[in-house]
Design brief:
The chain has six helices and eleven strands. By secondary structure, the protein is of the alpha/beta class. The strands form three sheets. The protein has a seven-stranded mixed β-sheet with strand order 2-1-5-9-7-10-8, with helices on both faces. Strands 3-4 form a two-stranded antiparallel sheet. Helix 1 links the parallel strand 1 and strand 2.
């Protein structure tokens, strides 16, 4: 398994948060090394979208119903549109690399922090191709309900909780920390090919990926750093 923390180059807050993430992994005793992955930055977006032959297919205002997926796509609070797209491109690039490397990736956003040593044996499961390991509290909407459903389930590896009606994309807790296998990476690449590029935590949802799971044990939590995409 390779491990990466997405880090914005020359960005003091992002670099510091990534350093905290890397150090926290050492403190809990993880044996793997986390590498910083240079995040896509806004000025790179247009060229990368052309190079990857991608189109952004998500609303900037209001909500639209996507008949192809049966999902309601609701705009995220976004001041800098290019920053939002850049975040998705960072994850997309790692998905491509994971698929090409043919080995699992642990993908962390810079605000993730380890609170427990990761049981890497969870990678061996054949049931889930993508596994979230993050505490939902302060990381996602309806976080208390998200956590309650996980806590009440006795299985260590379980399906992503259902916290809303079907048409609302529901995925991992903030997409701050997850393991993705090559099969999962290929699924994500195909989804982007079929539906266009969305915010990464919207397109990585249980409605589109049946093999999307979470751990009952929370191995990471968010640091609470300011958002670099919503502001």
């Amino acid at each position: 398994m390779k491990a990466f923390v997405i880090t914005i180059p020359d960005h003091e807050v992002s670099q510091h948060a990534a350093d905290v993430c890397i150090e926290s992994s050492k403190v809990v005793g993880n044996s793997f090394e986390i590498q910083k992955f240079d995040a896509v930055i806004p000025r790179q977006v247009n060229k990368m979208m052309r190079d990857y032959r991608l189109e952004w297919n998500y609303p900037w205002e209001g909500s639209v119903f996507d008949f192809k997926t049966g999902l309601k796509k609701s705009a995220y609070p976004t001041v800098n549109k290019q920053a939002r797209i850049a975040c998705s491109l960072s994850h997309y690039t790692l998905w491509k690399n994971c698929y090409n490397d043919a080995e699992p990736y642990l993908i962390l956003e810079h605000d993730a922090k380890f609170i427990k040593k990761l049981d890497i044996n969870i990678i061996d499961t054949d049931k889930f191709f993508i596994i979230g390991i993050n505490n939902p509290l302060f990381a996602t909407r309806k976080a208390n309900l998200f956590k309650q459903i996980i806590d009440e389930n006795t299985k260590e590896l379980q399906l992503v909780p259902t916290i809303d009606s079907f048409e609302i994309p529901q995925g991992l807790a903030g997409n701050s920390a997850y393991i993705i296998k090559p099969k999962g990476a290929r699924q994500m690449l195909r989804l982007v090919e079929d539906h266009g590029l969305w915010p990464n935590d919207a397109i990585m949802c249980k409605q589109l990926i049946p093999a999307l799971g979470v751990t009952k044990t929370f191995y990471t939590e968010v640091q609470g750093t300011p958002s670099t995409t919503s502001r």
